[in-house]
Specification:
Layout (H helix, E strand, L loop, with lengths): L6 H8 L3 H11 L5 E3 L2 E3 L2 H15 L4 H4 L4 H10 L11 H13 L3 H14 L2 H21 L5 H21 L8 E7 L6 H13 L2 E9 L1 H11 L3 E5 L8 H10 L5 E5 L15 E4 L2 H16 L1
Parallel strand pairs: 3-4, 3-5, 5-6, 6-7
Antiparallel strand pairs: 1-2
Length: about 300
């Protein structure tokens, strides 16, 4: 007699969250469990298939490209470590034009649908570098030139927060991964940079806790103490000068042993002396990503 497993047991056996399991079933029909009065019921074959899919997603494949493959195709792809399908060949400009048109015209449903389509076709890192970052730059530049308003910038921010949420569900933290609290300090209202950083931290296997923009230093330090966060990342846009007082307050109030990472610019020490906590600056987001990857690889050592 074939054994059946409830969804909570499957989540533990496959390493996938319950939200991810439901999303893969609903959006991509990755598996089709049986239904009973006790809820979803999975077979051992379902579990094996889900493990294959998870391993391929962790290697950079988009779930939308591989969900329809048979077991043999998944195993062959896993052995070959080659891409399953051609990603979109359009340039960043060609990928951005439909998105920008939708968001500029407040067509939020169509904008979110287009983002979802690209997320299904592109590997997560490609999505960030080919779509998310160019979209952020273009929206920021148009806002600075006065061609779009704050409302459209907020619309894009909301859509990108949804992308971050999906990445977190698909890429749970590695065992022992450090918690990374991500925010901007008081007066810094632009969140595009920290959103991109949160996405990259997630796919690297760290544990990002996204707190958003315009957070007072005291509140951020309080959150670090309550969560036992090992890393605090604050971001600055090119349009905002860092507040030396806010930065000094944060350094003073963070728990001993916490690392402070600063993204977007090189920030000097407030008083030129050796700080009480380690501080690292990442003016270039690729350098931030590389450091996240090094930290994640250190967990496997």
């Amino acid at each position: 007699m074939e054994a059946y497993y409830p969804i909570r047991a499957v989540a533990k056996l496959t390493g996938l969250s319950i939200d991810t399991l439901r999303a893969w079933e609903r959006r991509y029909s990755a598996v089709v469990p049986e239904r009973s009065d006790r809820g979803r019921q999975y077979t051992q074959e379902h579990i094996q298939r889900l493990i294959l899919l998870r391993e391929l997603v962790e290697r950079g494949h988009a779930i939308g490209q591989i969900a329809g493959l048979h077991k043999a195709g998944l195993q062959e792809l896993l052995s070959a470590r080659s891409p399953v399908a051609e990603p979109p060949k359009e340039s960043a400009r060609e990928l951005l034009e439909p998105l920008l048109e939708h968001f500029v015209n407040f067509e939020h449903t169509r904008g979110n649908e287009e983002l979802g389509r690209l997320a299904a076709l592109l590997a997560p890192r490609d999505l960030i570098y080919r779509v998310v970052l160019p979209l952020m730059r273009e929206v920021g530049e148009r806002w600075h030139r006065g061609e779009i308003g704050v409302a459209q910038e907020h619309l894009v921010s909301a859509a990108l927060r949804n992308v971050f949420g999906a990445l977190v569900r698909l890429h749970p933290p590695r065992p022992g991964a450090p918690k990374m609290l991500i925010a901007t300090l008081s007066g810094e209202l632009h969140e595009f940079g920290i959103l991109a950083a949160a996405m990259l931290a997630s796919i690297a296997g760290l544990d990002p806790i996204y707190l958003g923009p315009n957070l007072p230093a005291g509140e951020l330090a309080y959150a670090a103490r309550k969560t036992s966060g090992e890393i605090v990342l604050i971001g600055y846009s090119s349009l905002q000068e860092p507040s030396s007082q806010e930065l000094a307050d944060l350094i003073r109030d963070l728990p001993q042993g916490t690392e402070l990472w600063v993204g977007g610019r090189t920030v000097p020490q407030p008083d030129g002396t050796t700080p009480r906590i380690p501080i690292s600056s990442f003016p270039v987001i690729e350098d931030f990503e590389a450091q996240c990857v090094r930290r994640s690889q250190g967990l496997q050592a």
